Amino acid sequence: MRRSLAAVTAAVAALVVQAAPAVAQDSVYDRAVAARLAGDPARAVALLEPWLAAHPSDADALVQYGYALLALGEYDRAEQAFADTLSLAPDYADAREGMALAAARRSDGTAARRSFILAEGALSDLDRGQRDWHELGLAASLTAGERSTLDLRGSWYERFGIRDSEFGALLTHRAGQDLWLRIGGSFAPDADFRPEVGASAGLDYRFAPHSVASIDAGWQQFPAQTIWTLRPGFTQYLGGGRYAVTLQASAAAASGRDVLVGASMRGDYFAGDRTRLFAGAASGPETGLGIVRQTTSLFFGGEVALGADVSLLGSAGREWSGIGADRNEARIGLKLLL
């Protein structure tokens, strides 16, 4: 009898030991799902990472991990989690939906956007022996709720030995699932060549899953004249949102003057969530000196993450001007996520 009781006790103990990992898994899984659904994806990630390190073949946990990363805007890592899930379970519908959602979010300009501060500077080397141009700027992009972003900026310019300071704000609001509206303004105290006051308005409309149409209009009161601008454009996202091609037309006119028109083309490659490259060309009206002049330019640049919250930005370009000297420009900036 004692042997029978001992055998039963041993068998029960063995079952408990074998079931312990499953109980632990259920506990971690349930807590992670609860955290994600409660709007705390960071906690879900923190709960799931140790479990997945020990149990990399847990498809359900991988899916939850992917959706938590997606909520944090970590699109590359989310896609990898969904891809790992599909390698284990090719018919896992939630993982396939997650892959599609990650691609859509990557091409959605306001999805999971974080506030940041950007400090940058630029130097232009002018031909014909003219004095270099200098520029310094400080900008802040602040999320205002789930649907709005407020961009603030201040810039200092030096052109031909003359200095100007300009301050501006731009409010962008997601008015619908596929519609973004923006309105902005700027002013320059004691302006010499920057606009004394300016106003702008525009919109983006996504008319297809990866296609966005845009239009922007602007009014600027310079010391010498008033200038109006209009810029319609189109952006096509490719490769699941990793590539983008933007075409834009432009028109500008000063009071009582003819309208000048032009166009630009730009290509972007999003290598990672905070790593990108871009290049483009433009030919058309430019108003940076307070007059409307025809220019042609080539440019390229990019952004690379230096750490979890810091990125380095840089660009270079060449501009040929119909009025005044041609120039080379180099720009560098540092972005801090908040």
TrEMBL record:
Sequence ranges of the TPR repeats: 59-92
Domain of life, source organism: Bacteria
Keyword Lipid biosynthesis: no
Keywords per UniProt: Signal, TPR repeat
InterPro entries to which the protein is assigned, alphabetical: Beta-barrel_YaiO, TPR-like_helical_dom_sf, TPR_rpt
Signal peptide coordinates: 1-19
Record-annotated membrane-spanning stretches: none
Protein name: YaiO family outer membrane beta-barrel protein
Organism: Croceicoccus marinus
Biological classification of the source: Bacteria, Pseudomonadati, Pseudomonadota, Alphaproteobacteria, Sphingomonadales
